[in-house]
């Protein structure tokens, strides 16, 4: 952040009699204007007239970050006059916070902070830190970092924090010498606390706090049997009082923390109403088989869980977590061992799932992704970047899970395309707003029979039909891949010797016949219905055998016309086939489109020059990012 305004506005710029200036002198209008301007522009414009200066001065001084401005004389001089306007203050170890401590001889006070990030607390600056906390009783968000010397006494600062009656969030950043007594004092005093955060704490393995001996909650034992044999020294009344004292904490973040499993369980046992838990980047942490059940016993209402980048959590442990936390709504598990077992457990046991982030995970089966999209009706966001989904396998799963009659027909009606082709396994997540996924046609993993039944053109059409039903989609990020046929032989086409009964074999035969019939209709179906251009009404022979979604009219772009809410389109691995016709179609049918990313635009090519020129003239706000 640049240095806030330190000089007064020019007296030569006064409001004149024009109606325009009178309108722009209205504070509400001036404040609305600031939402579309950057900080530098606001700082310059505030010097235009006194009306603008008065309205924008609180905006300029609202947030003060740590930076070079603390070494500038004009900033330090203005800090004294405008400190009462600061609402968010972030300090580094080199910033002199003593300048913000109230002086009885001066009229200004830095007493309106709602967010404060402290520099590392030392014996030298502890007094000033305690003072600035006490003169801001309305603090709601506080971050502390204690110096690594365990011999220092930080009791003054600790008691100042415990007196904050409106504190909602408390964060300890890299506190390698955090004492049990310090945390106890703060937690007992801050009854309004809702979120507790640890970040980069590595001392738990060696410190007594890590073993749980000093901080364990004896009133909630590991099992019901142990609960009955809890120490008599902790009475029921004390336990109830302690439980009530921490009932307001609903969020616990332990990011980049090296600790023991018992520490997590002991902490969560103190917070029975916990709803959000983050174990992001935890290291040296090994989970036992009963960890999920023990965690659910202590915090049964967890709705938001972040286990991304954890090093030692197995897929089976994650699956057990999904089964133990049925109220889960958000799961962030990117860059972990999250795999097919976990995804299936999530689909079966967490019906209220709204957000799933499993980017850069491996081992997910295409069939499981199909079940996720089909069953999780509440899903609003799915980020599975670098997760390849083989569309023919999804189609096979869709037919496999659809009830069939003895005659081989679907037992339940299927929604049809414009040509009357039934689409089984419809995705039920109609509220999906953001989708990030890698769709592919992996020919080597398909049998010869599957390749004949589901050609690339049919798989592409099936996918586009499914996407077209996600009418609330705002962000679509996809990658399309086509794998050549290497190493596939006729042995894949042999019958399955494990078919147990003639009835099962008959059912399988009916299903295959149904797939072959429907996919054949999809393969020859008009790709662009009634809205397409002349080029789109004809099947492109060269493209018909490729799966790549080129987002061209000839590849079926018109099928996606229902996506009226689409704002961002991000493509990867997509052949550049977007010309002027496609861009004009997108602007017409996706009126909210503001960003297209992933296509290569060459300003030396006549077609690309035409497209970019048309966009600049007709839709200049659409960002084209290569």
Lay out the secondary structure.
Layout: H1 19-23, H2 27-34, H3 39-45, H4 50-60, E1 63-64, H5 73-82, E2 88-90, E3 115-117, H6 126-134, E4 141-144, H7 155-162, E5 169-173, H8 180-189, E6 195-199, H9 208-211, H10 224-228, H11 236-245, E7 251-255, H12 261-270, E8 276-278, H13 291-298, E9 304-306, H14 315-324, E10 330-332, H15 340-349, E11 355-357, H16 366-375, E12 381-390, H17 391-400, E13 415-416, E14 422-423, E15 434-442, H18 448-453, H19 456-468, E16 475-483, H20 502-524, H21 541-544, E17 568-572, H22 580-589, E18 595-597, H23 606-618, E19 623-625
Question: How does this structure look, described?
Answer:
The protein contains 23 helices and 19 strands. The longest helix has 23 residues, at 502-524. It is α/β, with parallel strands linked by helices and 626 residues long. The protein has a domain at 422-486 and 500-625. Strand 7, helix 12 (261-270) and strand 8 form a beta-alpha-beta unit. 35% of the residues are buried. Residues 484-510 are annotated as: Disordered. It comes from Lobosporangium transversale.
């Amino acid at each position: 952040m640049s240095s806030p305004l330190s000089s007064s506005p020019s007296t030569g710029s006064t409001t004149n009699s024009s109606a325009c200036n009178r309108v722009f002198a209205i504070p509400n209008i001036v404040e609305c204007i600031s939402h579309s301007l950057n900080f530098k522009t606001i700082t310059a414009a505030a010097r235009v007239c006194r009306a603008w200066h008065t309205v924008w001065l609180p905006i300029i001084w609202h947030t003060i970050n740590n930076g070079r401005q603390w070494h500038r004389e004009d900033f330090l001089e203005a800090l004294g006059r405008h400190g009462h306007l600061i609402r968010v203050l972030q300090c580094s170890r080199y910033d002199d916070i003593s300048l913000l401590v109230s002086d009885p001889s001066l009229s200004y006070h830095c007493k309106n902070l709602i967010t404060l990030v402290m520099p590392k607390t030392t014996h030298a600056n502890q007094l000033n830190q305690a003072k600035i906390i006490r003169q801001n009783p309305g603090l709601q968000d506080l971050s502390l970092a204690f110096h690594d010397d365990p011999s220092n006494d930080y009791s003054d600062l600790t008691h100042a924090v415990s007196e904050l009656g409106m504190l909602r969030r408390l964060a300890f950043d890299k506190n390698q010498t955090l004492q049990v007594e310090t945390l106890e004092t703060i937690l007992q005093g801050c009854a309004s606390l809702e979120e507790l955060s640890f970040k980069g704490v590595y001392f738990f393995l060696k410190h007594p706090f890590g073993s749980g001996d000093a901080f364990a909650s004896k009133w909630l034992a590991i099992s019901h049997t142990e609960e009955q044999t809890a120490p008599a020294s902790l009475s029921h009344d004390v336990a109830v009082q302690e439980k009530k004292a921490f009932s307001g904490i609903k969020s616990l973040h332990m990011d980049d923390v090296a600790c023991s499993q018992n520490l997590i369980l002991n902490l969560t046992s103190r917070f029975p109403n916990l709803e959000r838990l983050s174990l992001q980047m935890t290291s040296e942490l090994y989970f036992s088989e009963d960890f999920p059940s023990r965690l659910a016993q202590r915090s049964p209402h967890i709705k938001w869980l972040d286990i991304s980048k954890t090093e030692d959590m197995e897929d089976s442990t994650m699956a057990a977590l999904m089964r133990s936390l049925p109220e889960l709504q958000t799961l962030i598990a990117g860059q972990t061992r999250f795999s097919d077992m976990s995804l299936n457990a999530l689909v079966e046991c967490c019906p209220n799932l709204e957000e799933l982030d499993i980017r850069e995970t491996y081992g997910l089966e295409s069939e499981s992704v199909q079940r996720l999209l089909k069953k999780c009706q509440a899903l609003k966001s799915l980020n599975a970047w670098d997760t390849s989904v083989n569309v023919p396998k999804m189609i096979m799963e869709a037919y496999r899970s659809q009830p069939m009659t003895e005659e081989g027909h679907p037992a339940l009606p299927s929604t049809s395309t414009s040509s009357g082709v039934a689409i089984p396994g419809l995705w039920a997540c109609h509220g999906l707003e953001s989708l990030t996924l890698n769709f592919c046609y992996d020919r080597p993993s398909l049998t010869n029979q599957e390749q004949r039944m589901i050609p690339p053109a049919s798989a592409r059409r099936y996918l586009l039909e499914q996407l077209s039903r996600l009418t609330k989609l705002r962000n679509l990020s996809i990658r399309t891949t086509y794998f050549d046929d290497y190493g596939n032989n006729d042995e894949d086409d042999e019958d399955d010797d494990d078919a147990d009964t003639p009835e099962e074999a008959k059912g399988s035969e009916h299903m295959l016949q149904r797939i072959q019939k429907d996919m054949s209709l999809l393969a020859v179906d008009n790709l662009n219905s009634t809205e397409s251009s002349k080029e789109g009404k004809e099947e492109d022979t060269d493209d018909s055998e490729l799966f790549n979604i080129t987002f061209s009219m000839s590849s079926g772009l018109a099928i996606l016309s229902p996506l009226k809410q689409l704002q961002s389109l991000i493509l990867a691995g997509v052949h550049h086939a977007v010309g002027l016709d496609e861009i004009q179609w997108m602007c017409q049918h996706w009126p909210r489109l503001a960003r297209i990313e992933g296509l290569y635009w060459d300003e030396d090519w006549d077609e690309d020059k035409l497209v970019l020129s048309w966009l600049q003239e007709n839709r200049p706000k659409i960002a084209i990012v290569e």
